[in-house]
Structures are given as C-alpha cells and as structure tokens.
From TrEMBL:
Family, as annotated: Belongs to the histidinol dehydrogenase family.
Annotated residues for binding of Zn(2+): 251, 254, 353, 412
Species, as recorded: Bacillus taeanensis
The name this protein goes by in its record: Histidinol dehydrogenase
Source domain of life: Bacteria
Keyword Transcription regulation included in the entry's annotation: no
C-alpha cells in the first residue's frame, strides 16, 4: 500500500464510467432486440451470457421454498432483524403532503405521491447480495410503492442465490425474474410478454447494466450510475492499525477497481496500517481482487494536521467515510462531502452495509459532492398545488400579465386578463 504526502498525490476520484464503444454498441443492440422480440430475446441472451436454457423466467413458489431449506434458521432471523432496522430508519424519512392558505383565499401546497412501480436489479457474478434486496426494496415500500419487481441473473443451474430469494420473500417481494444484464434492464424499462414495465429502476450492476440504465433513463427513472466501491478512513494516532487495515480491505475485496484510502496526520499509523494490509491480505479468500484494488487504487495520505486531512476528505467526497479520531463528533460539521459517515472505532463500514439501518446504496466517483444515499424521496414524486381565489386574481392579474408580456408570451397574458375582463363585464 502506497504511503504518500498530500502534495505528491493525485486525486483518486474517477470519472463516471462511459464504457467502450463496443460495450455501448452491444448494450444498444440488446435493448433494441428486447424491445422488438420480448421474451424470446430474454431467453436467448440468458442462454448466451449466463449459460443456462430456462424453461420459465419467473421464480416459482417451489424455488422460494427450496431457498428456505438451504438457509439456516438463525441466518433467516438475522435477515429479519436487519430488515427491521432498515425499515425503521427509512420510515423516519417519510414526508407528508402539505397545504397553506393565504388571507386572500389562495391555497398552495405540495402533494406527495409514491411511484406506481419500481424494478430492483440485484447483481450476480462473483458474490450474492441479499443486502441489495433489503436496501433497495425497503425504502420503496416505506414510500408506498405498490408494485416492486426484481430481476437477477441466474446461475448455470438456472437458480438464484438462496439468500437473495429469502431476503426478497422476507420483505414481501414475490415478482422475481431470472434475467440479468442489459437485457434485464431493458425488460424492466420496456416490458415483454412476461414482464410488465416499471417506472423506475434501482440497484447496482456491472458496466453493461450501468450503460443500459443510462440508455433507458428518460423513458424510466433510475437511481444513479454507480461506480466501483470506495472507502476513506480518516484516522489519528488513537486508531488501531489492524482495525483500519481490515476496514480498508472490506471495500477492496469488492472489486479490482474499488478504492481504499487512509487519510491521517500520523506517519506511524500510515506505516503500521500499510503493513497490516499486506499481512491481512495473505489470508483473504478474495485476495487477488483485494490486492489489485490496493495496488492500483489504494493509498495512505499523510497530512500535516487534522485540518488538512479534512480538506483531503472533502476533495475525495467518498462513498463511505470512517472517522476514527479521538473525538469524531467534533469535526462532523466540517465534513461536507461523503455518502455515509461512520463515527468512532466501533462503526466499521460493514455495520452500515448490512445491519444498522441507513442505506448502503451511496454516491460514488466523488458524486457525494451533490447527491445523496438512496432514500424514500427517490420513490416518491411531488406535485405542486395551486388554487387561486377571485380576490387573488383581481389583485395580481395585471402583474402576471405584465410579466408574461415581458417574455413575449401574449397568450399567457390574455389567459389571465380574460378572467379580469369577465369579472368587469358583470
């Protein structure tokens, strides 16, 4: 792990992934075929990319039952407890419609309406992600979304991971289809004979999923274009090197392009943490992935003091930020850019990934400068309410018409004045 002085470092923020020309062309072709051929294209792409010839796309009741047989009852209890924590956190985010009435009789307000339907993409590949089910489904349910449908790529045996199915059943999702990749995104966006389209697509995936989400955006809404995972640990001399190293590796094992960074004013901690990273790597099952991440996107930045360390953190705007210093709360107001902030030595990032309650779908690639974690607002829309009274139009009609004419919009002005004229005729 590289130990670098701040003035010699290059920002580890990366641009949002655009993909190669061939990847973009492949995604466009897949989308067009799904739009034109529906289920036929889904079956063909699933055989081509996932290596399985399915007889049916939809997960059956028998598959749910088998999933429960494969998962230890104690683990099911943990999933339920995590779901309860996540549900409780997101219930607190709910907003209500509101209305105000002015003395002139005008009523103004905002009406909150949940989306009708949401599609959740749960990735497959090198790991199974029951936590993705909980984190994407529960805020949608808290928002009041009635139809939640899930897609996920099947294994070569034509199944989905038992943990994913159990998590889905525990939160009440039963409409699940064994289809992934760009074809799964296209099916959610445009629909097929079997899969009815949705209004919004959420959930992480590989580059093909990300590019497909970008292509369908506008026809449907999406959550974000997520990049590789990131963690920054802001620590001082009170932090323990073995814990810091373990936290860095908890993100590095996600992806070869994941970023794991220590920012500290302590040269001693930087050196000890770097040694610990190398030591702990040796026994990691995903050693190859984590080692590549640390080699290419890992670093320890040594700053002159804590104030400079905070500036580095805000420049990086990380997805996950751990603050392991003597008094974490003392600098919380100084942290302006981070997707999730973990305070203190016991708030390891996996606590938020799985169990505490806040959402783990977070802005990456420095986009925490202007965006937020997935939340209840992402599954609702707001309608403005305007009810003008006779008194209000009499008092303000001339002003409104004048402003319309300032913009050269005569019909706008007349639409107001016709009401004033009618009133004068009476």
């Amino acid at each position: 792990m590289k130990i670098l002085a701040v003035e010699n470092t290059v920002s580890l923020k990366r641009d949002i992934e655009q993909g190669t020309d061939s990847q973009r062309e492949a995604v466009l072709e897949i989308i067009e075929r799904v739009k034109a051929e529906g289920d036929t294209a889904l079956y063909q792409f699933t055989e081509k990319f996932d290596g399985v010839n399915l007889s049916s796309l939809k997960v059956t009741e028998e598959e749910f039952e088998k999933a429960y047989q494969l998962i230890d009852e104690e683990l099911v209890g943990y999933i339920r407890e995590a779901a309860s924590n996540i549900r409780d956190f997101h219930e607190k985010q709910k907003r209500n419609s509101w209305f105000t009435t002015n003395p002139d009789g005008t009523m103004l307000g905002q009406k909150i309406t949940p989306l009708d339907s949401v599609g959740v993409y749960v990735p497959g590949g090198t790991a199974a992600y029951p936590s993705s089910v909980l984190m994407n489904v529960l805020p949608a349910q808290a928002a009041g979304v009635e139809r939640i449908v899930m897609v996920s790529p099947p294994s070569k045996e034509g199944t989905l991971p038992a943990g994913v199915l159990v998590a889905a059943r525990e939160v009440g999702v039963t409409e699940i289809y064994k289809v992934g990749g760009a074809q799964g995104v296209a099916a959610l966006a445009y629909g097929t004979e079997t899969i009815q389209p949705v209004d919004k697509i959420v959930g992480p995936g590989n580059i093909y999923v990300a590019l497909a989400k970008r292509e369908v955006f506008g026809h449907v809404d999406i959550d974000m274009i997520a990049g590789p995972s990131e963690i920054v640990v802001l620590a001082d001399e009170t932090a323990k090197a073995d814990a810091v190293a373990a936290d860095l590796l908890s993100q590095a094992e996600h992806d070869m392009r994941a970023s794991a960074v220590l920012v500290t004013p302590s040269q001693k901690l930087a050196e000890e943490a770097a040694e610990e990273v190398n030591r702990q790597l040796e026994t990691l099952p995903r050693k190859e992935i984590a080692a590549a991440s640390i080699r290419d996107y890992g670093a320890a930045y040594v700053t002159k003091d804590l104030e400079e360390a905070i500036k580095v953190v805000n420049e990086l705007a990380p997805e996950h930020l751990e603050v392991i210093i003597e008094d974490p709360m003392s600098i919380l107001s100084d942290i302006r850019h981070a997707g999730a902030i973990f305070l203190g030595p016991y708030s390891s990032e996996p606590v938020g990934d799985y169990f505490a309650g806040p959402n783990h779908v977070l802005p990456t690639n420095g986009t925490a400068r202007f965006s937020s974690p997935l939340n209840v607002d992402d599954f609702q829309k707001k309608s403005s309410i305007i009810s003008y009274s006779k008194k209000a139009i009499d008092e303000n009609g001339y002003k409104i018409a004048t402003l319309a004419r300032l913009e050269g919009l005569e019909a706008h002005a007349r639409a107001v004045e016709v009401r004033l004229v009618e009133e004068k005729k009476k």
